[in-house]
Amino acid sequence: MDDPSPPTKGAFHVLVADDSQETRELLFEALSSIDCTVTCVRDGLEALASLETKLYDLLITDYNMPRLNGLALLRRVQTFTCPPPAILITGQASSDVIEEAKRAGVILVIPKPITIPLLLSLVEFIKGHRFAL
After folding, report:
1. Residues 6+ apart with CB under 8 A from 119
2. Disulfide-capable partner of 61 in 19, 70, 95, 106 (CB 3.0 to 4.6 Å)?
3. Which strands form 86-90's sheet, in the order they lie side by side?
4. Across residues 107-114, what is the average pLDDT?
């Protein structure tokens, strides 16, 4: 799922990686409503491939995905010259997962179920501070 509109200068590009089609669609619609250009992929390997070919302002990834989970994806992304800030969404927000996520470079862990108004507020904040992160 990709935003079909042409890329615009100054657009805020978000990559969403989640194996749940329902979650991808929900995040696509929500993020599009605040003028983000959104690309959605099904797992960490697809996210990694997309990150290697396109620059994103924000990565939102699920923790538990097939082929390459969110933490493994984030560890690989941290080796990039300029990794995007990342948010991890998870149904397993234990202190161990949160600590692992911090070590993998996550700026925020959001537990499931996702509270869309909270997520949108956080993304708006990140958009406003994108060059400071």
Report:
1. 27, 30, 87, 110
2. 70
3. 36-41, 12-17, 58-62, 86-90, 108-111
4. 92
Using an 8 Å Cβ cutoff, are 133 and 122 in contact? Answer: no
Place of tokens 């959605």: 40
Phi, psi of 130 (to 5 degrees): -60, -30
Give the pLDDT band (50/70/90) at residue 7.
very low
Cβ atoms of 43 and 66 within 8 Å: the answer is yes
Inform me whether the pLDDT recorded for 22 exceeds 90. Answer: yes
Q: Where are the domains of the chain?
A: 12-128
Phi-psi label, residue 47: left if phi above 0, alpha if psi -120 to 50, beta otherwise: alpha
**What would the CATH number be for the domain defined by 12-128?**
3.40.50.2300
CB 105 within 8 A of CB 78: yes
Q: Beta-carbon neighbour count of residue 52 at 10 Å?
A: 10
* Other beta carbons less than 10 A from residue 51's beta carbon: 21
